[in-house]
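Trying the structure run again after the queue cleared.
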Amino acid sequence: MSPVKSEEKRFRILEAALRVFSDKGYYGSSIPSIAKEAEVATGTIYVYFKDKQALANELYLYLRDIFRQHVKLGDDRMTPRERFHTLWQSYIHFGLSHRMELEFIEDHHHAPYLEKETQKAAFEFLNDYSKFLENLVKAGAVKNESLFLLLGMMEGMALGLLHIIWHEHLEPTEENIAKAEQMAWEAIRI
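Done. Tokens:
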């Protein structure tokens, strides 16, 4: 008879894994240290996850889903500038309230222990942003450049802002966030 799985316990293990991976890195972490952090027996982890790699993959997908739920792309009724504003504000505010989650996503995005299916899901996720940018290009609102170039510029500027805020070089005021948003918009708009 297989053990009964609890969503609450699975969530607790994922949250503990996030803290341990964030503190010790993937290679410095162990299943026993994650179990201790989650306050479960080491064997319990294996009821939910095959091994540390499976746990890291599941955590990555779980955090990408949280990110996707929080970061908004606006809708077709909005002007291109309003859509950019919606994306920028939701991205920055996600990073301010979910630093550990966003750092994990960024640090592990190209990790060798992410399985092909996890990487595929991550790139499918990028399709939403590519379509968003493609619509802005078609509307004549942003430069007609490679979508990956535009995406890299936008995300680089947003992450750069978050890094200087996280490291306390800039106050996370609405004024500073709005100024950075305007500079980011100016960088890609026509």
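The mean pLDDT is 94. Worth checking whether this holds up in the mutant runs.
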